[in-house]
Amino acid sequence: xxxxxxxxxxxxxxxxxxxxxxxxxxxxxxxxxxxxxxxxxxxxxxxxxxxxxxxxxxxxxxxxxxxxxxxxxxxxxxxxxxxxxxxxxxxxxxxxxxxxxxxxxxxxxxxxxxxxxxxxxxxxxxxxxxxxxxxxxxxxxxxxxxxxxxxxxxxxxxxxxxxxx
Length: 165
Prior knowledge:
By secondary structure, the protein is of the alpha+beta class. It has helices at 15-24, 31-43, 51-60, 67-79, 122-135, 151-164; strands at residues 2-4, 83-89, 92-97, 106-110, 116-121, 145-148. The strands form two sheets. It has a four-stranded mixed sheet. Strands 2-3 form a two-stranded antiparallel sheet.
């Protein structure tokens, strides 16, 4: 059974929780780190940003943060397990807010508009465990990326084709 990832599954980290997690690891909650994480929280689920996207958003909202600081903050927040990192295309790293619970979630990405739809599938997770057992792999993560054309883009194409005829 396939289920969409519910909005409630996205964690909202309080400033106190962030400070505690970072302090436990011997790190500080800098204003830049807080702004990076707050950006992901404000955008909500289904938003996957590159470091350049994060830098652009922060600059647009009047924050003076260097791209190097954004990269360092993203790397640390992934290490701290507050953000997840994935590779959408070869060499293109995207980040998203880590979701609550332990269910693996997967992504469908529209090749026309880059819309990303998240979903959970027990069938995929179970198949991954079966393959790992047969091959002797120890799984550290299960992530599937499907590429195609979303409903909106297909409808736009259909409407455009009808207009031309």
